[in-house]
Amino acid sequence: MSTAPPPPGPPGRTSPRTFAHRARTTARDALRDVGVALVTPTGSTEALLSQASRSWMRMIPYVVALALVSSLLPTTIGLLIRDYEVAGALAGALAVAQTAPLLLAVTRPLPAWWIIGSANVLCAVTTLDATADRPAPWLPPAIVGYAALSLALALREKRRTLVAVWLTTTVASLLLAALSAPGSQDTSVLMIVLSGAMLLVGTLIKDRREAQHKLAEQEDINEAERSHRALLEERARIARELHDVVAHHMSVITVQADSAPYRLGNLPPGVVKEFESIATGARESLGEMRRLLSVLRSEDTAGERAPQPGLDRLRHLADATVRAGVPVVLSSPEIALVRELAQLSPAVDLSAYRIVQEALANVVRHAPGALTEVLVSTDRKHLTVAVVNRPSKRPSSAPLEHGSTGHGLIGMAERVRLVGGTLDVGPLPDGGFRVAARMPVVEPGGTAPAPDRPPTAGPTSTKEQPRP
Prior knowledge:
This protein is of the alpha/beta class and 468 residues long. It has 3 domains: 16-186, no CATH class; 231-296; 311-440, Heat Shock Protein 90 (2-Layer Sandwich), CATH 3.30.565.10. It is built from 13 helices and 7 strands. The longest helix is centred in the middle third of the chain and has 77 residues, at 188-264. The radius of gyration is 41 Å and the shape is elongated. The chain crosses the membrane at residues 59-81, 87-106, 138-155, 162-181, 187-205. GO terms for molecular function: ATP binding; phosphorelay sensor kinase activity; protein dimerization activity. Residues 441-468 are annotated as: Disordered. Keywords: ATP-binding, Coiled coil, Kinase, Membrane, Nucleotide-binding, Phosphoprotein, Transferase, Transmembrane, Transmembrane helix, Two-component regulatory system. Its EC number is 2.7.13.3.
């Protein structure tokens, strides 16, 4: 038999045969989609609420299903035997098929729907002749169990499947209601409305849960991006600060190369030309550095013309912190700090100062009023800088930040990594906090300290309390 579409009618008009063919095609496709949706469950077989953080919440679906089975099973058996005059064995089989699959619905709600739905229809057909003055076509316990099953379906299955389930429920209810005995209490509308309401409620709950999950994922992504951006900003800030250090060395090279022919005198022409080439290269490198600095400097950052600080500025930093309400104790006299400073490379000197500065700023913010000790020592090969604060008697103004800004712990870690050192941070047993950085006196690739300077032996026993 040919299934070719009918010939088209006059232009601008749709013939009845064409309209009927399109209607049949649309109906056939809709039925096929409904059938596919009803036999295609989601791939997940995890229990409902399996992602809950607490174990008692993960047990809720099993407890509810067991409670429903325990209450609905004997109620259904008694109702079928007493009110509908169904044989005991058949009543038991129907009741088990209508209630026991609720336990399966915790992990596989769509297969459970096939079993319970088929059992409900079979029960309705079995009791058609005995429904006068009684609920029909659906028994009250069956409606309760089906409502719970609809909620489980909505929490797991796709919307297309839910629509197919509700349409099937509606069609079956209307057909069975038409076959019910006259004078029976119609429960088809109740089944249609209640199952649809439970499907809608479950869909809303699932959509809200998925929205919260996506929001949490987006927050994790945003936090990672903020941490990465903060790291890049901190590296750019460190690069801007180190510009003065490198520019000073380049300027010295330029001056020495330019003045060498006049200071040394009687140099061969080749040597003079070599010095000129060195000076020219140093000036070009200095210009490139300035252009690089202009790229690293943000639009709202003013030019940094003040000299970069070092450990010789620790006394001023401690005084400023004391004025902020934090008692600070320096572990080394100022003379010892200056002697140690003379052996440090500029980058290590700047990094050590910034680490102490940021550690004291964290104390002011997170442990206001806590006694804080700054320890500076060296074994000639390494410089150790530690900031230790005791517990604060006043509440912290903000939580400790590990990755939300470009300063603090991120800045310390980057500075220590820059000069090839190590950083150790963490809370103390008594409730305080410790920040310790160990850095080589000379940064990797630098020049060793002068051999005629005796090494210092670490922090002295004399401790000074700076006065505000």
